[in-house]
TrEMBL record:
Pfam families: Glyco_hydro_28. The keyword Glycoprotein does not apply. The active site is at H172. The lineage of its organism: Eukaryota, Viridiplantae, Streptophyta, Embryophyta, Tracheophyta. This is Polygalacturonase. It comes from Trifolium subterraneum. InterPro entries: Glyco_hydro_28 (IPR000743), PbH1 (IPR006626), Pectin_lyas_fold (IPR012334), Pectin_lyase_fold/virulence (IPR011050). The keyword Transferase does not apply. One of its GO terms (molecular function) is polygalacturonase activity.
Amino acid sequence: MNAIELKGPCKAPIEIQVDGTIQAPENPDDLHDAYEWVKIQYVDYLTISGKGVFDGNGEIAWKHNDCGKNSKCKRRSMNFGFNFIKHSIVRDITSKDSKNFHVNVLGCTNFTFDGFTITAPGTSINTDGIHIGRSTDVKVLNTNIATGDDCVSLGDGSKQITVHNVNCGPGHGISVGSLGKFPNEEAVEHVIVKNCTLTNTDNGLRIKTWPSAPGTSPINDMHFEDIIMVNVLNPVIIDQEYCPWNQCSKEVYLIKSYS
């Protein structure tokens, strides 16, 4: 299936049930620079459910991904983009082998993932599980994530976020950030990460911020409770000099972590 978009407003509620396997083109160029393979936006009261698998066929894309060290790289498609959606849930489906991030959540309110599965090899490049940004009241519940990057990552403007009963591994753990790279970033606050298990991950719990950057968003009211870690290389990291591939100068940091 080529890249598709569902764009509202639409008459609510909407339910999409998937019980088979849907595959993206193997050649990343066949998606014609689409930022998301499946893009859904401006739709409220949406339910996506079933035992279906969205297979991104990402292996070729991973082999040619140099975005970690090349700021002008060609970014490949994410499996899902959920943008500006309210009162919705994704339940029981699987995202497999995305060419880039598996899921990006932007500008959403009251959005839940429950019983969601994400799977990709630990060697896959930039295959973050669920990335959340500029969204309020997002829940990731009873979810299994195995990937090559962060299992869950919270970008700026993530507020009232709950991550509960999530199994992560392989991957890079559960992260806040990176933050501070861009101007006008919003605070990350009221976050609860509870009853999660991280196994065979590079990192456990991580907060990462860019030094000498224009953004000054604070990080407030963070709670990490009842976390189990097994064979985790770096259990807890607060990195205020996050500078992958030396893309910045490590000077004074501006992000404030209050609690």
